[in-house]
Amino acid sequence: MKVAVIGANGKAGRLIVAEAVARGLEATAVVRGENHSAAQQVLKKDLFDLTKADLAGFDVVIDAFAAWTPETLPQHSTSLAHLCAILAGTKVRLLVVGGAGSLYTDASLAVQLVDTPDFPAEYKPLAQAMAQALAELRKRDDVQWTYLSPAAVFDPEGAKTGTYRLAGEVFTVNEKGESYVSYADYAIAMIDEALNGKHIRERISVLS
């Protein structure tokens, strides 16, 4: 299987690449500068400059793009729109590293975490931008996308336990009442989804 990881130099991207390589996949890092991941191949190009031809040879494209500043937050939507435009009508699957703020508080799917009173104010702009991007992605029926939301506590330094659990649209906690997952275990879930492709045009969530 051939996998392209956009944003392969990021904390999540590097671990996703490492997991892909460890599992025998052929990974290509899509980066703007020097590659710092374990990918066997490198495509040096800005996400917004990618073309249909650039991604045509892959089975799966994993989008680990990140934007944090107020000026760049709209790029969560514009980057996904660009990727959808060049993957539309193809068999290439698009897997997206998502956010937890768009998870719903209960099965009525009426209220997202980002809209609850206790949601941390400093994270609200990012969560709103990512929720908007997901809302726009849901409208695409011409792209084989899957959106993977991590737990509320998404730990870049957390241990790789080798286990995780999948949930759906609703915010879920473990037996300890915690919503937690390490980047390393999230990477396992991402590569499992890349290999299995069981959640086409769905949002799923990952926790430990």
Helical amount:
25-40%
Beta strands, count: 10
- The top level CATH class name: Alpha Beta
Which structural category fits the helices and strands? Answer: alpha/beta
CATH homologous superfamily assignment = NAD(P)-binding Rossmann-like Domain
CATH architectural label? 3-Layer(aba) Sandwich
Largest pleated sheet = 8 strands, mixed
How many individual domains? 1
Order of helices and strands: EHEEHEHEHEEEEHE
CATH topology: Rossmann fold
- As residue ranges, the low-confidence spans are none
Protein name: NADH-flavin reductase
GO molecular function, one term: oxidoreductase activity, acting on the CH-NH group of donors, NAD or NADP as acceptor
Pfam families: NAD_binding_10
Organism: Avibacterium gallinarum
Keywords:
10 strands, 8-stranded mixed sheet, alpha/beta, 27% helix, 5 helices, two-stranded parallel ribbon, 208 residues, Polyketide_Oxido-like, Rossmann fold, NAD(P)-bd_dom
